[in-house]
Write a structure and sequence with these properties.
The structure is a homodimer.
Chain A: E1 9-14, E2 20-25, E3 29-33, E4 36-43, H1 47-55, E5 57-62, H2 67-75, H3 86-89, E6 94-95, E7 104-105, E8 110-122, E9 125-137, H4 150-153, E10 156-158, E11 166-169, E12 173-175, H5 180-183
């Protein structure tokens, strides 16, 4: 179809015994700003669905638009036999998270540790919404105001099933100028609310690997 | 925060009297392929939330990464007095949809007509999931196989609240090659399933404005 795309990611989870699972997701999206909440949807029967339902925790790990990151992310989408660790298979390294049990992926620059707010089962799918309880990134992808340096982070977008394992870059930017009399009327695409930058302040400090 | 971005869109709805509302959304995302389902999340109290809950229908209209489209989309985010039509305010033209009551936006290249599958109220927000019951696009953005011509369609990505009205382009593509022995293991980022292209066939035929 005509591409309703979003950020691809590897979601890491653990089962009740602590075994790590990792799975490529085509679309993980922020759906609330304060506190930040994210959503993704996965097929029932997948290990990620079981683990998130059992533990209520997951970590969203964001690859950059680089052949290496995109390839390793795709490899975590493999249907491996039970007990096989997708991170090993993809050549990725688990790194302890700050708050939740599932690990972060050391090779990726951006991580969102999440606790489940709610999930909804429909058709053969599970839609999961989680609140971000900790976020971290490599210090080189964030400026001194806690904002992304897009050209360094090089965000990717997944094109969707009909296009195979195809991704676009998402860092050539443009900013719309509406004029101050119009800005006052904006709500759905409103600029940063006052104090927003501090919401994740405890967790967002740069971290050098 | 560190950008979990997605496709921006204008969602059109009608109230029970048929009055049209339009609202800019920062992230509308496909969360199922067959049949195609999409989701977005909006603040409670917004006209879109009322109208979707009342009528069960909405249309997702996708702007391209062009100053004109992005500007008009942002203008539909204005908090206008009740009864004021955001499409008029933004200089956009309503075009009848094929299946649902809310109109499509003539100036935009891609449209998804949707019926609500379910919605979920949480915090002060409403997460809406709809099934795509009709899709249409300008004939110039689709090739003869029904796939997007990315360089013509020029998809955009919204950077998120902390970055103001800033968008990235999303059409510089790369495709990951894993090798056939690995492709067989893929599930979460699987290429097009057989027959997929036909799912929307009745509605996806090119439409020239």
């Amino acid at each position: 179809m005509y591409a309703l795309s979003a950020t691809p990611a590897v979601v890491t989870t653990v089962d009740l015994d602590g075994n790590v699972n990792a799975s490529a997701m085509g679309a993980v999206v922020r759906i609330a700003h304060d506190p930040v909440a994210v959503t993704f949807t996965i097929g029932l029967g997948r290990d990620t669905a079981y683990n998130v339902s059992a533990t209520g925790e997951f970590v969203v790990n964001i690859p950059s638009f680089s052949p290496k990151d995109l390839r390793s992310m795709c490899l975590t989408g493999a249907d491996l036999p039970a007990g096989k660790n997708e991170l090993d298979y993809a050549g990725l390294t688990a790194m302890d998270s700050r708050v939740v049990k599932p690990p972060r992926i050391a090779e990726y620059d951006r991580h969102f540790e999440c606790r489940v707010l709610w999930n909804m089962q429909w058709r053969d799918r599970l839609t999961i919404v989680g609140e971000v309880v900790a976020a971290s990134c490599s210090s080189d992808v964030m400026d001194e105001h806690g904002k992304l340096i897009w050209e360094v982070a090089r965000p990717a977008t997944y094109c969707g099933g009909p296009y195979g394992l195809t991704f676009t870059s998402s860092f050539e930017r443009t900013t719309v100028k509406l004029g101050s009399e119009v800005d006052d009327l904006m709500s759905s695409l409103r600029p940063t609310p006052p104090g927003y930058a501090g919401v994740m302040g405890n967790h967002a400090s740069g971290e050098k690997r």
